[in-house]
Amino acid sequence: MRIETRAIHGGQKTEPVTGAVMPPVFQTSTYAQPAPGEGEWEYSRTHNPTRTALQDSIASLEEGKHGLCFASGMAATDTVLRTLKPGDRVICGDDVYGGTYRLFSQVVANFGIEFDFVDLSRPDIEIPSGTTLVWAETPTNPLLKTTDIEALAAKTHAVGAHLVVDNTFATPIFQRPLSLGADIVVHSTTKYMGGHSDVVGGAIIVNDDALAEAYAYLQNAVGAVPAPWDCFLTLRGIKTLAVRMQRHHENARVLSDWLAARDDVARVHDPGFGGMLSFVLEGDMAAAKTFCSSTEVFILAESLGGVESLIELPAIMTHASVPPEVRAQIGIPDGLIRLSVGIEHIDDLRADLDAAFVAARR
Q1: Which of 193, 223, 238 is the last residue of a domain?
Q2: Domain-ending residue, one of 215, 238, 261
Q3: How far apart are the two ends of the chain, measured CA to CA in Å?
Q4: Does one domain contain both 252 and 211?
Q5: Confidence tier at 58 by pLDDT (50, 70, 90)
Q6: pLDDT tier for residue 169 given thresholds of 50, 70 and 90
Q7: For the chain, which terminal residue's Cβ has fewer other Cβ atoms within 10 angstroms, N or C?
Q8: Residue-wise pLDDT tens digits, 61-105
Q9: Domain, as residue range, for 349
């Protein structure tokens, strides 16, 4: 079954009692048991049929065996890290979402886990012995660097470590990391999976039974699970993932070429696929603020991946938790503007940005 068909049917069946095409919202906290300690379902923190449908759908999209869903992308990320112990070493991409950097450096590091932030997009990158986990975003956030997943997986496995790939930006429409050798895939399903800026969620997908068992134990024990209605909304969004990603991709490529040809743009960061772009505006932070505040179609907001276009300044928004000296070292200037290119008409998007360029020059 091809990815476009799996987005609609993968991991899902019609509801057996009524034949409902969409999995129903099982808005319940507990389930009647036929006898004490018996029954497939017991409590919705542990299992919920709507959540199970979503987990199976996402696992199908990523060509994985096990899918587990969480209340947010950060909850999914935290769950992966909870399997580590003091003294373990994590190699992480240097250009990652600010919330990921904050969790790693300011929360998890306090429990004796070591983090090294390096440029995983470099072909000559080496993974040192003693590494427990390698964490890669590809494309990265916000510089949109890409990593050779297959090569990185080989280097990671050579030292006995697991490779995690955050596939939020690419989605399984453009890449499926498990098939390239990654051990663990994570998503903020808030973004392209949901696709409508109306639900927050996260997911982990693995093939390994032992990893799945460990994450499922934490999912239940910690309880950072999504509500049934949130799962339903995300399932609704996944139905149109393939067609939405095609339009995101087409619009972003047109804007990338248009931005690159402008004299008032110093640099464009474009991974070549998907709906994310970033660019450096000629001028200072004040000009960048004016630019971002002058759009009408592009909404000034954090997050990404919805049908509507969003614009933001990473230095003072999504990556404000990254210290200025670290941002400078990574190459995130104050004037870097990130675009989540939506599915509106391309002429309206281009005209909106053109007006913002005029406003920033005043």
Answers
A1: 238
A2: 238
A3: 54
A4: no
A5: very high
A6: very high
A7: C
A8: 999 999 999 999 999 999 999 999 999 999 999 999 999 999 999
A9: 241-361
CA distances (Å), origin 264, targets 94, 153, 283 = 28, 39, 8
Q: Are residues 168 and 142 in the same domain?
A: yes
The answer to whether the beta carbons of residues 168 and 54 sit under 8 Å apart is no
Strands of the sheet with 310-312, listed across from one edge = 265-269, 276-281, 336-340, 310-312, 299-300
CA distance 183 to 198: 30
Total domains in the fold of the chain: 2
Among all residues, which ones are annotated catalytic? 45, 97, 166, 191
Tens of pLDDT, residue by residue over 256-315, are 999 999 999 999 999 999 999 999 999 889 999 999 999 999 999 999 999 999 999 999
CA distance 210 to 90: 20
| Residue 173 clears pLDDT 90, i.e. is over it | yes
CA 71 to chain centre: 13
| pTM of the predicted model as reported, rounded to 2 decimal places | 0.96
> CATH number of the domain that 347 lies in?
3.90.1150.10
Only one residue has tokens 């429990």, namely 111
Integer angstrom CA distances of residue 187 from 91, 151, 293: 19, 21, 29
Q: Which string of b and e fits 51-73 if b means at least 16 CB within 10 Å?
A: bbbbbbbbbbbbbbebbbbbbbb
